[in-house]
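Bug #77: duplicate submission created two jobs. Keeping one. Sequence:
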Amino acid sequence: MISLRQSYRGIILFLCLTILGVVGVGVSVHFRVLEISDAWHLYTTARSERFVLLNKLRGDLGFGGMIHKFKNLVLRHDLGLVPGLETSFLNLKRHLEEYRKLGPSAAEEADLRAIELTVSDYEDKLGLLELLIEAGESPTVIDRRVRVSDAAALSALTNLENIAFHIGEGLRGSDRRRLRNLASIRAQLGYGGMIHAFKNYLLRGDEDYLDQARERAVAVRSLVEDFLTLDPTDVEQRHMMALLATVTAYRHSIERAENLRPLGMDISEIDDMVRVDDGAALEALDKLDAAMTLRLQQRKLQVDHSIDDIGGWLAVVLIGVGLALMLLTIFIGYLVKRGMLDPIDRLKEKVAGISGDRTADWRIDLNNPDFISVQQEINGLLDRLQSQLHEITMERDRTAAAMETKSRFVANVSHELRTPLNGIIGMSELLLSSPLTEDQKKLTGMVRQSGEVLKSLVNDILDFSKLNEGKINLVVVPCCITHMADLTISILSDKAAARGTKLEKQIDPDLSEWIAGDEGRITQILLNLCSNAVKFTENGTVTLSFRRRLVEDEEMLEIAVTDNGIGISAINLGRIFDRFEQVEEANGAQVEGTGLGLSIVGSLVELMGGTLGAKSEEGKGSHFTVTIPYRPCKAPVVSAGAAQSNNISVPPRKILVVEDNEINTVLIQRILEADGHMVETCSDGAQAVKAAQENSYDIILMDVQMPVMDGLEATRQIRALPNGAAGIPIVGVTANVMEDDRQVCALAGMNTIIAKPIEQAHLRQALADFAIR
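Kept job's structure:
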């Protein structure tokens, strides 16, 4: 067997030889490609259609073009120049449209528009110019009447030339300078250049134009001299000399005009005396452009010939390199398969077996001498991993069992606590409704209040458990903001009055009266925050406010609870939202409660997609804010039946109460009989089934957990009875009020459930609902 180490040596030697060959070919090709690249960049850049069109625009705008003819027409009053000027207008418009066909950028389009507007201005002035000439006005007056601002067009031309020559920055040699020089000569001679400035001086007498004309003449001479250093042809030299001659003639005319103008001579007469023949210079520029085009064509031929020369040679080289690389790939693939892939395949097969059977032996055999040490390391790791996985699996099972035990414990504790609570609260309510002395009412009220506190603690524990297990689902319905605020204040009013504290509400008038949300949970949040505020505020004020605010472009409802109580220290403020954390009163006494309230509020707010925040200063009060999504909605349409149920007087009904706890039985029976109902009782589910079979009832109140037969099985058997008993409304009465418990009751056939401890209002409402049905 070939070892992996020997395979690597062969691969390295082969790769070194291949790399040396490729490098040699690359060096040979490099210098040839540089020559081709140089010629190609020069040709593609110089032949750019943008550059060609810009040269045409410069020509038709400046020297021998629109501005030249326009100024001459003003100076000489020769209407025979008008056709030539109109031709320049047409040529300029055509060139601009051709440029637009090249797909210019937004910046180029803006520059083209600036040039187009200037040309249009000159074209608009032509009619006025002809009228003024026919009226015999002087050149100075005419110039003043037909003057056009050239600044925008000149700036646009410069911008376009910079864009056109941007590609040319990559060119090498003298050809880029030739292109630049020719474009610059046209610019310095024509539009915005020497002749433009000279004509303006003749018309306006402004010395600044004279200085500009001189500066442009010097610039043209410098450009011509620079061009002559680029090894021009004899023809190019001759044309450049013609340009120099014209520039020199203009320089003499500039000096002569400077001397003549102060003499007060007629401007047209001065123009005749300083006139220069531009024909030779214009012809020279055209011939230089043609020579440049010919030069570019020759360079293109050089590129074509160079490509033809090396095309076949490169093809042979590339084929050879390709074959070498192909052989190398085949060889490497063979070695990798023998030395690496086969052991890896065996490792994959072993891993697949491990995932299917975690109790099997995980150790592997790669059957390769190069992997002995690796195999030993992997087997050691697998042994440790298998052992750790076994421990993790056992710990997971223990944790799951503990969680299940905890859930059952919470449910059982809830049931066991709610059953005596039902008796405490219910019996105290019955006592309070009976004739009592003032002292007896006070003591009974304390009993009821203690029961309510205990009920609140049980609810907190249940909510905490349900939130931990993700069993709380929001029920989104239309909610009335005012109703929730009033309900909160009403519930806490006695507690606040006992502490001398005033409860206030503030609702932004811009808020919708109704919003979409879980009314029960929002009210729970309000009660928790306001109850805390009252708890820590004595002889002060607690304000519950609602307003709308924008958070990251989303409308939110901000609920704030503000008090001027004892406040919270900075240290305690950081932990008040933790579970089982409580803040002491100012005198150091521990307040009542589980320490779960704010933790539950935070979880509920997060479930609603909102945030909970708090600010406080010790001795000055606290400010809690809840921010939840603001979803305004319409008020719900209340059906006739629902509206009637709020005020209905339920007629006497025959009701079967199934309850194994004697106290709860007496409580429910007393409440129902006080309302005029006929009540029969049973202590287990089997008795209930028998009673439903033998008697006729309007409603059955069914406890869930009972001896002999529980309420669920009793409900299922009643629903299976052949007589009319199968349709009797059955209301579950249970201390187990988690969502899973509600679903189990519904599946068993119960119409609805009410929670223990039983509240008289809830019991009467359930009876009213079924009375309507």
